[in-house]
Amino acid sequence: MQAFGRIKRIVTASADAIILYFDGANLDDANNACHNMLAAIDSNKSRNSWCWLRECVPSYDSLLIVFDMALIDSHGVYRALRNLDAEGINQQTESIQFRNESSAVIEIPVWYGAPNASDLSVVSKKTSLSIEEVIELHTSTTYKVYAVGFSPGFAYMGDIPEALSCARLGTPRKRVPKGAVAIADRQTAVYPSESPGGWNLLGLTAFDMLFHSGEHSESRLKAGDAVKFVSITEQEYKAGLQVKL
Q1: What is the dihedral of CA 43, 48, 54, 59, to 10 degrees?
Q2: pTM
Q3: 10 Å Cβ neighbour count for 47?
């Protein structure tokens, strides 16, 4: 399958799925192209009778498309994507950029240095920054949610300041507490539930990464959201927990 438009590569993921990889001047540009295609698919699938479409999963610079093999094959999916009106896709790009620029920044309060979730001294050594500088840099940036995955509600955000970039732990922990705020390479995230993990922990937040409705849970953050971390005290963190209770 030959690449077209902003798509630089198309890969068969399985018998019922393909992955589109997008080109861009940088990661953010490629990510915008990915969500531009996703928006175009959403706006066209109903009127074009795309009943074969099962799921679209965006990531940093790629889009996984899962389809019903009983209704279509990968070449049919390819033809449907090629038939998307180029002008319509460009209009979707403008609307996405406007929505992201005009949407409110979501603030996540963090108790930096919480005893059961603190690698601040490790990060300080890795980056040659003081602990105060680590916190200042982490809170100085407005982050974009590039993708949601790994576990329900786990939002990959970037990019953290280059000076703060540090590798994952050599040996992942078996248990990372719920609400742990972490960094790895140029990314930052919040662990939505207790789980294994190898990222560097900076602190804890009482911000729930999931919406709960009956037996169902939904990620609070979506790809394209803007997020900023705000430093709070231990008392403010515990007060936040009490409000949730």
Answers
A1: -40
A2: 0.80
A3: 7
